[in-house]
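Write out this protein's structure.
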Amino acid sequence: MGEIIRRQRELSKLSMRQVAQTVGISNPYLSQIERGLREPSEKVLDAIARSLELSTQALYAEAGTDPGAEPEKQPVVDAIRADKSLTGRQRQALIEVYEAFAASNGARRPRRR
């Protein structure tokens, strides 16, 4: 999704600062979204779509995702969550790293439960 947002922003000839300001988020947060490190909430995604003069559905369609679909199975994430030898923060950090690697390799990011 982040790559689609970046491409649409560039096609609209808007700077990251302009979009972030219009949406009401920080530049670093928008940068993380565009690089696939953060998943925007529905509210933020709606605001980004509006600032790019697109519908949220158009962004989902271009990304090839269905927002109403059931979450994908996540055996690695489930295993990390089940490991009680790790602290909550350690589990969360591992999940974030795993999801970032998966996203950078082109894997579709599952919707969080």
